[in-house]
Amino acid sequence: MVLSRQDFRKQIRFKRNQLHSDVQFQASMDLVSQCAQLTEFQNAKHVALYLSADGELITTPLIEWLWRQGKKTYLPVIHPFSQGHLLFLHYDQNTPMVFNRYYIAEPKLDQTQIIPAQQLDIICTPLVGFDSTGHRLGMGGGYYDRTLEPWFKTGHGPKPIGLAHDCQHVDKLPIESWDIPLPKIVTPSQIWDWE
Predict the structure, then answer these.
(1) What is the CA radius of gyration of the chain?
(2) How confident is the model over 106-137, as pLDDT tens digits?
(3) 5-193 falls under which CATH superfamily?
(4) Beta strand spans in the chain (E)
(5) With a threshold of 0.85, does the pTM exceed it?
(6) What CA–CA distance (Å, rounded) separates 169 from 115?
(7) How far is CA 113 from the centre of its chain?
(8) What are phi and psi of 177, to 5 degrees?
(9) How far apart (Å, rounded) are the C-alpha atoms in residues 49 and 52?
(10) Average pLDDT score, the chain
(11) Residue 129 in 3-state DSSP?
């Protein structure tokens, strides 16, 4: 039986939501160790991440590590006028936060804190699942596929790097024409590299 994209989403989300809090904590620490090895993170000045939800690999320790390295961090905000698109706003300990329509915390919209996506060095992308060829399965809104399309077409701009638990890997995902494969995905135990 061939699983649909929705079936994969259900199965993988269930698996990651079953991870014990101790496992989640250790995974978040291991993620920092993995990312610290990558020249992309060592050389970056502007890094977009996301705040974890729904059992995603916890990104807070990575964000705090980036702050200690003197890097600026940014979080995605759902664009208020351009449907299906993201803005990226500067994020630090004092950033006022609100909940978006998906009940995910994001910075309160402030035009002075927006960075054009092309000025980012890295966009860390959330994902539900990924396969052995670098294809990423998101939640289905297409926000990151739209954001990464210019990079995919030209090879220029911020480098997308996926972050995931090891249990989110599957051999092969069903893909669609609009899906943007990732050049690199970091899990607590491995750096997957397709460059």
Answers:
(1) 16
(2) 999 999 999 999 999 999 999 999 999 999 99
(3) NagB/RpiA/CoA transferase-like (3.40.50.10420)
(4) 46-48, 72-78, 86-91, 97-99, 105-107, 114-115, 122-125, 129-130, 136-137, 159-163, 184-186, 191-193
(5) yes
(6) 31
(7) 20
(8) -60, -30
(9) 9
(10) 94
(11) strand
